[in-house]
Design brief:
With about 180 residues, the protein is mostly beta strands. The chain has a single domain, classed as Sandwich (Immunoglobulin-like). The strands form three sheets. It has a seven-stranded antiparallel beta sheet with strand order 5-10-11-1-2-3-9, with no helix packed on it. Strands 4-8 form a two-stranded antiparallel sheet. A two-stranded antiparallel ribbon has the order 6-7.
Length: about 180
Amino acid sequence: MKLVARKLPLCFAAAFCFAAVSGVVAQENKPKATSLKPVTTEFKNADGQSVGTATLSEAPHGVKIKLDIKGLPAGEHSIHIHQTAKCEAPDFKSAGPHFSPAGKMDHGSMPAGDIPDFTLIVASDGTAHVSVVAPNVSFGDQADSIFSSGGTSIVIHAVGAPGASGSPARIACAVVKRAE
């Protein structure tokens, strides 16, 4: 195969060079993404006792939540991000409903605070050490940020899924606020 060099019209060559240089300049002027520091929050049970921590950090598609749990009943539990940065015992209803910025439901019917396909499994010794990504929330300043409207909370429910009579009891709660 023989390569043939062709001369391009000057206007085409100049336009190509301009586009290439413009792309480099635009790349240099593009704001650099800042890495936000992880936030650690403490879970409390209905008696006000510490039952673990959640460390939240940026993830490529959502917010990574690293859970270190102790002293909870063994078995399956669900966790959700709730609307309000309040965790008043004993029932933690002060955390409000599942986080849903401006009433927005993701994927048709799922609040942003839901974590699909995840169940917290607590071992027989009351501990769990696991990480999960909450895909429908963000860590920055967007409307779907876990820090919007003064913060949110993470609630651990008594069982993995709601029963026929409504949502399962809230057994632990942690307030999520931006580090100051």
